[in-house]
TrEMBL record:
SUPFAM superfamilies named among the record's database cross-references: Periplasmic binding protein-like II
Coiled coil: none
GO biological process: transmembrane transport
Gene behind the chain: phnD
PANTHER family for this protein: PHOSPHONATES-BINDING PERIPLASMIC PROTEIN
InterPro entries, per the entry: PhnD
First and last residue of the signal peptide: 1-24
The keyword Thylakoid is annotated on this UniProt entry: no
Protein name from the UniProt record: Phosphate/phosphite/phosphonate ABC transporter substrate-binding protein
GO-annotated cellular components: ATP-binding cassette (ABC) transporter complex
NCBIfam families xref list: 3A0109s03R
A Pfam family reported for this protein in Swiss-Prot or TrEMBL: Phosphonate-bd
Origin: domain of life: Bacteria
Organism expressing this protein natively: Nitrincola iocasae
Similarity-based family: Belongs to the phosphate/phosphite/phosphonate binding protein family.
Length: 318
């Protein structure tokens, strides 16, 4: 039976998020934040702006990059039309590679997963401004802890003494949120109460559970739903024993020192894109996404920063 997020913790997270968002950030000394919105300001001097002939775009590495290069192809052609630039898809293999590419100036526009957004903002100068949403403007996904129907695990407590797969240390739903919630709600800590491992991705964790590599796994249900929709995973091959509150999904944005006029064109490309009949619509329709909506890191990522602080995560990368 699925166990929902317990009210006291949910209230605590939301209340604490408001205060945490107001404290000093761990932003790299390379950046300035004069307006206090928690993201890096564009350089004042035009000589510090970047205006590349080719914009490099990367989608968060949650599944096979080759699949998503095709999914994003139509959108990137639209961005080329709006910006007047060539746009190249960069198939990153890990969150660390994606972060380092933007920090090194090799990546200009990207979708960073929920948990990586704070690190990208503070260490790489990422400026998120949009995310996918449903037709009614609602958005987000939940973290689920899944297991096999025949595993003998019927509740979170049953995972004690068993194996639990995480995805990567920077993932919100694949590591940070489940670690914080398992400790806060159930008093369960990795290595002491269960055997942890890192699979490298949500798809790996899901398939690992189904193939009996792990007894259970913490995953984003947006990825799970897409795998079910593509018939990669059968609905009866797993069961959910825990489902969290809703978290913001992948944040899309640009690097802080992109020429301001070009940054505005990048935003225009996202907000003017026609989803109808597109590969994006086909891929993400089972998660409910149907449009790009405006967001701010300060507001929409408050709960994620709170979870990070609860886990003593810092973003300082000086």
């Amino acid at each position: 039976m699925t166990q929902p997020l317990r009210t006291p913790l949910a209230v605590g997270i939301l209340a604490f998020g408001a205060s945490f968002s107001a404290v000093a950030s761990d932003m790299s000394s390379r950046f300035t934040d004069a307006d206090g919105d928690l993201v890096a300001d564009a350089p004042m001097d035009a000589k510090d702006w970047v205006d590349p002939d080719t914009l490099v775009f990367a989608y968060t590495p949650v599944e096979d990059p080759a699949v998503y290069e095709q999914v994003w192809d139509g959108f990137l052609k639209h961005m080329e039309s709006v910006t007047g630039k060539r746009v190249q898809f960069f198939p990153v293999q890990s969150n660390a590679a994606q972060l380092e590419a933007m920090r090194a100036g090799r990546l200009h526009v990207a979708g960073f997963n929920t948990g990586s957004n704070p690190l990208a903002v503070n260490c790489a100068g990422f400026v998120p401004f949009t995310m996918m949403a449903r037709d009614d403007g609602s958005f987000g996904y939940e973290m689920e802890i899944i297991t096999r129907p025949d595993s003998g695990i019927e509740s979170v407590e049953d995972i004690k003494g068993r194996s639990l797969a995480f995805t990567s240390p920077t993932s919100n739903s694949g590591f940070k949120a489940p670690s914080a919630l398992l400790d806060a709600e159930f008093g369960m800590v990795a290595d002491r109460d269960f055997e942890p491992s890192f699979s490298g991705g949500h798809d790996n964790s899901i398939l690992g559970v189904i193939n009996n590599d792990y007894d259970a796994a913490a995953v984003a249900n947006s990825v799970l739903n897409r795998m079910v929709a593509r018939d990669v995973v059968k609905p009866d091959s797993y069961t959910t024993v825990y489902k969290s509150q809703t978290f913001p999904t992948t944040g899309y944005g640009y690097v802080y020192n992109l020429k301001p006029e070009l940054a505005e064109k990048v935003q225009e490309a996202f907000f003017s894109y026609d989803w109808e009949g597109s590969a994006l619509q086909e891929e993400f329709k089972n998660s409910g996404e149907a449009q790009f909506i405006p967001i701010t890191y300060q507001q929409h990522w408050a709960v994620i920063r709170t979870i990070d602080q609860a886990m003593d995560v810092t973003y300082n990368c000086n």
